Amino acid sequence: MEKAIFGAGCFWGVEDAFRAAKGVTDVVVGYSGGSVPDPTYEVVCSGTTGHAEVVEVTYDPEEIGFEHLLDVFWSIHDPTTLNRQGPDIGTQYRSAIFYLDDEQKTTAEASKKSYAMSGRYPLDVVTEITPATPFYPAEDYHQSYLAKRGLGSCHVPKA
User: Fold this and answer.
1) What is the C-alpha separation between 72 and 148, in angstroms, rounded?
2) Is 103 within 8 Å of 4 (Cβ atoms)?
3) 134, 147, 133: which is closest to 19 by C-alpha?
4) For the chain, N or C: smaller number of CB within 10 Å?
5) Domain parsing of the chain, residue ranges
6) Considering the chain, what is the average pLDDT of its residues?
7) H/E element holding 72?
8) Contact predicate 1/60, CB 8 Å
9) 38 pLDDT tier (thresholds 50, 70, 90)
10) What is the Cα–Cα distance from 12 to 9, expressed in whole angstroms?
11) Which helix (H) or strand (E) holds 6?
């Protein structure tokens, strides 16, 4: 199994979208990209920690490649809005790929360039591609949030 970390706005809908991808074995919502150890939701929402709401995706590379995970990532959010997705505003909602190795970095950069040049987006793609920092799982009540409440979706479109 391999892991990947993505930030694409509110992690509830992002989690739901990645769970639907064949070959994904687990998705955990949490925080990454900041400087404060063991952040809480309230602290992250203050915008002072540098963390983004993210998902840590565990996947079987024999069933789904990192490239396909990137396709899911690009399809479920607007990578041209800086620090915002839909109604959610703040650095914690930024578009981000936190790479875990050089191969992920190279693949993510090539994918970003391809999507940016595709003409799909009228504005510049602002997605950050940075080395992964420690991943901190979010509080239990955030895990599988939509499924636990019988909600079919968030503002995130299905991939």
Assistant:
1) 23
2) no
3) 147
4) N
5) 2-148
6) 93
7) helix 66-75
8) yes
9) very high
10) 9
11) strand 2-8
pTM for the predicted model, two decimal places: 0.93
Q: In this structure, what is the dihedral angle of CA atoms 18, 77, 85, 158, given to the nearest 10 degrees?
A: -60
Span 97-106, average pLDDT: 98
Interatomic CA distance for residues 128 and 99, integer angstroms:
10
Q: Which residues are catalytic?
A: 10
**What fold does the segment set 2-148 form as a domain?**
Peptide Methionine Sulfoxide Reductase; Chain A (3.30.1060)
Residue 57's φ and ψ, nearest 5 degrees, are -100, 125
Task: Count CB neighbours of 148 within 10 A.
Answer: 11
Answer yes or no: are the C-beta atoms of 56 and 100 closer than 8 Å: no
Q: Dig out the tokens for 19 from the structure.
A: 């769970």
- pLDDT tens readout for residues 41-53: 999 999 999 999 9
DSSP class per residue in 83-135: TEETTEESGGG-EEEEESSHHHHHHHHHHHHHHHHSSS-SS----EEEE----
pLDDT tens for 109-159 read 999 999 999 999 999 999 999 999 999 999 999 998 788 877 666 655 545
The span from the CA of 39 to the CA of 127, in Å, is 23
The pLDDT of residue 152: 62
